[in-house]
Every structure is written in C-alpha cells, then in structure tokens.
Amino acid sequence: MSYARFSDADVYIFLSEMGLECCGCWLNPSSSWTYYSTQSMVDHLQEHISAGHKVPATLIPELWQDDQENFPGSGEDRE
Q1: pTM for this model (two decimals)
Q2: In terms of residue numbers, what domain contains 34?
C-alpha cells in the first residue's frame, strides 16, 4: 500500500513486509529507510517537512488511522 508517491509529493511512502518505507529518500538518497512504527515514520516525515519537502497534509493522519492494522499489538515503538 502506498501512502504518498513522487507524482504528488517529495516523498514516496509505502508499507512493505518490513515496515513503513521512505523509498528514494531525499534525506538519504543512497537507500530506502524502513521504520518499524508509525511514530518513527511520523518523526522522519517531520524532518522532510523541516527540510521544505512537499509532504501531503493527509499523510500523517492516514498513517495514524492505519496504525493498528500496520503494526498490530504494538503499543510501543518496535525499533
């Protein structure tokens, strides 16, 4: 499932079997970054926002809406 793509944002965020990924991350162009909790991805997206990157306003609320489905039973950061 993709939350944001480069066609409408400066980030490409999707859920993989590993976790939430920031593919082709502009903050670290040499690789994708994988996050194992919604909070960790939200913190990362705040770095993109601080850097002036275009992050859809709906992205963070959508991540929180899907938190329990994406990370079932994780009441805490799994990193």
Answers
A1: 0.86
A2: 2-70
End-to-end, the C-alpha distance of the chain in Å comes to 21
In a domain, residue 20? The reply is yes
Contacts with 52 (C-beta within 8 Å, 6 or more apart), sequence order: none
CA distance 27 to 33: 10
Q: How far apart are CA 77 and CA 12, in angstroms?
A: 22
Predicted confidence (pLDDT) per residue in 46-68, tens digit: 999 999 999 999 999 999 999 99
Domain count, the chain: 1
Place of tokens 């963070």: 60
Per-residue pLDDT of the chain (79 residues; tens, 9 = 90+): 799 999 999 999 999 999 999 998 999 877 779 999 999 999 999 999 999 999 999 999 999 999 999 999 876 544 4
